[in-house]
Amino acid sequence: MISQFFVLSQRGDHIVFRDYRGEVPKGSAEIFFRKVKFWNDDEAEEAPPVFNVDGVNYIHVKVAGLFFVVTTMVNVSPSLLLELLQRIARVTKDYLGVLNEDSLRKNFILVYELLDEVIDFGYPQTTSTEALKSYIFNEPIMVDAGRLPPLGPAAMFMQGTKRMPGTAVTKSVVATELGGKKREEIFVDIIERISVTFSSSGYILTSEIDGTIQMKSYLTGNPEIRLALNEDLSIGRTGSSTYDYRSSSGGGTVILDDCNFHESVQLDSFDIDRTLHLIPPDGEFAVMNYRITQEFKPPFHVTVLIEEAGPSRAEVLLKIRADFSANVTANTIVVQMPVPSYTMRASFELEAGAIGQTTDFKEGSRRLEWSLKKIVGGSEHTLRAKLTFSQESHGNLTKEAGPVNMNFTIPMYNTSKLQVRYLQIAKKSKTYNPYRWVRYVTQANSYVARL
Amino acid sequence: MAPTVPSPAKSASPSQPSGKSEVADLKQQLRHLAGSRAPDADDQRRDVFKRVISCMTAGIDVSAAFGEMVLCSATSDVVLKKMCYLYVGVHARNHPDLALLTINFLQRDCRDQDPTIRGLALRSLCSLRVPNLVEYLVTPLATGLKDPNVYVRMIAAVGAAKLYHISATACLDADLPAALKALMLSDPDAQVVANCLHALQEIWTLEASNSEAAAREIETLYSKPVVFYFLNKIKEFSEWAQCLVLELASKFLPSDNNEIFDIMNLLEDRLQHANGAVVLATIKVFLHLTMSMTDVHQQVYERIKAPLLTLVGAGSPEQSYSVLCHLHLLVMRAPMLFSSDYKSFYCQFSDPSYVKKLKLEMLTAIANESNTYEIVTELCEYAGNVDVPIARESIRAVGKIALQQYDVNAIVDRLLQFLEMDKDYVTAETLVLVKDLLRKYPQWSHDCIAVVGNISSKNIQEPKGKAALIWMLGEYSQDMHDAPYILESLVENWEEEHSPEVRLHLLTAVMKCFFKRPPETQMALGATLAAGLSDTHQDVHDRALFYYRLLQYDPAVAECVVNPPKQAVSVFADTQSTEIKDRIFDEFNSLTVVYQKPSYMFTDKEHRGPFEYSEDLTNLTVGAEATENVISAQRYQENDNDLLLSTSDKEDNGTATNNGSSASSYNAPSDLIGPPLLSSQTPSETLLINPGGPTNSLQSNFSLDDLLGLGAPEAPAAPPAPALTLNSKPVLDPGTFQKKWGQLALSLSQECSLSLQGAASLMNPQSLIRHMQSNFIQCIASGGQPPNYKFFFYAQKDGATVFFLVECIINTASAKAQVKIKADDGTAADAFSALFQSALSKFGLS
Predict the structure, then answer these.
(1) What is the mean pLDDT of chain A?
(2) Which 8-state DSSP code applies to residue B784?
(3) Which of A221, A227, A297 lies closest to A265 in space, CA to CA?
(4) Taken in order B248, B253, B256, B260, is the CA torsion positive or negative?
(5) Model-level pTM?
(6) Which chain A residues touch B311 with a CB distance below 8 Å?
(7) ipTM
């Protein structure tokens, strides 16, 4: 039973505020904001998504820099509320095309319409973008997506390859385009977030892929879709240890540890032909989530070296090698490395002829930051840094610095080799041939090299 | 913070920034538009309505425009209508008279041709929350429940619950619950069915305290036909309604194993759902169904591992946090089952600290012979982490694993390596751990002392670390050559030592050092006691005085008190009692799991459950308070030095005047009262003073409470109980009580009498509640007016999980009591009844 729902901006302004049951005392949004802002201030910890102040439970998620919050007085399922909050954000995005403070402020009346139907007297009703269409009477007011920072996993396609229609991911499901005709298209994104930890000697300590097949459909009439995955895909790892690397020697087969599916997916023939049947609802949703701990080839090899160079100096050598094919390019790469707390200055030396690379020494957080606009497959990049300390370093520098963390996005590359063999749309007529976009992307979740 | 008007308002009217003038302006524009028939009037109205709602959102009081808004509401434009409904819903409660104006158009809309309009109007009508308009609600609601359109029925079902909250009698008089029930069991639309269930659960739960009929209705909801009716059509429901159905199913009590397997087979595929809430709700059903089947229960754990881990990896950090909290609970219950999955709980760079903390606890719990090496290696990596709070937690985790006795040897080495890292917080945390380790494994003292001896106390700023170092200096002063001199230098800086905790430890450490190496410490001791006596902190002063007098009385006795031979601690006390843990498990898939405490500790009474049926009695849940003491023992830890000190003083006085046994109680071995907590607790020598009282020494938390006068009042002479003894602090929450009361058969029902004095002194329920409590019978709810009182009591057989539940209706005029007893173990009911009656008959006699 939800008492209230509200969305706050980063500064704590109310963007929408809906009270469903009138049982929470006034000022809850302010109490929430103060609590989140000053959570355990000394230790700079982040507020957990669920907390209780004076008997009121506050549950929130952060989406697009905004706080989506519900309050409740009763002991409900936190997962239910968190899932619902994410879903509300997603449905709102489906309607507004872009989800950010500006678009929400411009369309707050439409959001109120949505909220009226999604929750009644604190009980979740429908969150289906499609079912809601008949109750939404406001036209979305579009904001210019071009100027806005990209948000959400699918937004990465906007900056990467040029093959994608730029406005596709920011299109509202209800808005009609100029000329009054809707473009028939469907997007299938295979998004993999990878986590790898390299030991100081360079071998892989842990590795995991958290993948999602995300779909966004703009097809009218909801035709049935068949999505075929690798034929030799297998699910569930046998053996006592989930981290048994031997099985991967063949290299061809993709073994999922586990996966789950969207409600709309029919799995009747999945065991036989690895094909998912579904009638995709409107809007964006995850068809399937999967997890892989099978060994894979990490896209980047990272080496770090830190050495003393005189009494209060040290030298750092960072090397990245892109272990993927030359027709793939990674972008927005950031490498971060914490250095000893007594580091005063750092000077950098990039390789000769480096373009699109910047370096920085963040004094406040004592870390080196190396950004690269793009890395072409097969290439190798090096950064040298000279550190000056305010005191003589004692003992082991490797215990005072690191680990190195790396962030990147690689469009049109997937680590797991999970493929969409084909995407078939039930034909309504001979001329019906909607656009189909199947896109792959790999992102770093936690890509860490220890010293 | 001053709310700012969102930009839409600003852009609409840049000249009117905010506040009163804005509202006045809006009012005027509305008045102007009210009668307008201009072609673009609706567009203009939309703009103004938007600004009104924008102000409302920002927190500006726009209720002054109520009349004008209503005047403008006569429109056929749906967008305008909806904005108006929204406005009216928010403000009607504060303007009951003006709200009447809206009734007309809402009622008319309820009869509109368009089902969407009908639905919207009905929803708004029910959301007005104005008690004196209730009469206008009943008919549209009753009609709405029969509406041919799904949307309207859906809204009407929830509307019935809304009406109940405005006026319970109106809702019941119109027989809406019966209509809801009929609809629930027949409507073809799943969301209508789900909303009926929502509404009925809410209404009957609240009603159950007044009427037995409602309580029975709740039971029918959990009965087999209803539960199976819902389960069989579970796939028709939306994912949110599926959660509701699953929650219902988790309360169902199957009559045989076939039913259990039927349900589990039916729900098996729900574990593959992408929605974490559905998966968790399914898991709850599985866990609860299989409680009595150990093997299957374990298989369930194995089965749910993979889906849970997948959910942790998918979704946003917030979503995975909630799932991880549940995983944490399961890991804590059955660590062995997760011991091979330890790598899943390694911290990731991108994890927020609240996630990392949970993972560290899980890693600690699942460490065993086979994985300790890897886990500790991983944890040591975090110890040098830039994220200081996590680095601290990691060090503590290493220490906890060491205390679990796996591969202590290697771990001690690593802890000692931490000390070489030369980071303040690392050293401080490590010292605390080394101290705890030494309390458990005194045999390691040699190695540890060698390293600890090299640490300069000047480099440690943190009180806890400093206190730990000082404790070791005192405890091992015979092995540390410099100990007296280090202590002496610390005493010299007494004034600069800000933490009373450290000063208290210094006092004790110097005392201990004195007993071991008197000539070298005598000077320092004098200085310490002098400094302590002039200390402004009460506890420091008192302890110094206490030591001083002890020494004056007899140094030999003083040594017995301050520095007796110690026994190693075998097990550090757990922070949570088993009952609490079980309760948390019972409340799986709720906020309880995230907060790690049962719901009665964080929910308001009115939102807690149906059981309290008398509003004017505020402290009904005596049982709940008792457990609260258990948990709050944690809080006591923070200053238990203080508390214990004052306790010991009290006890000292008490025993001196009491009888000759005082001397022997001083010599009680130190581990009789287990050190309460393993986390960062500094051992207090005053713990040695153990009251030889009647309390069970194993329940250290309880005995502590009793000493402080916080626990149960003094027990009178043991009741002349035949063979049956009761647990002095049973724990049972209202929900469980109610469930049990519903499930158990009546064991005994009889009439007994009170003493006349007792009947006369029963002016309010509290007096009897206290009396019964002193007989270890707890009251869970009570109410009534003279001469009739009704009580619900419970008690628990000592050392067993057998509960006794009692309903007791007392008539003070006739001094008679009607007693109904239900028991988990029916054979013990007679013994309990005798005990209960004897307790009851003594009421008022003392």
Answers:
(1) 85
(2) E
(3) A227
(4) positive
(5) 0.77
(6) 260, 289
(7) 0.88
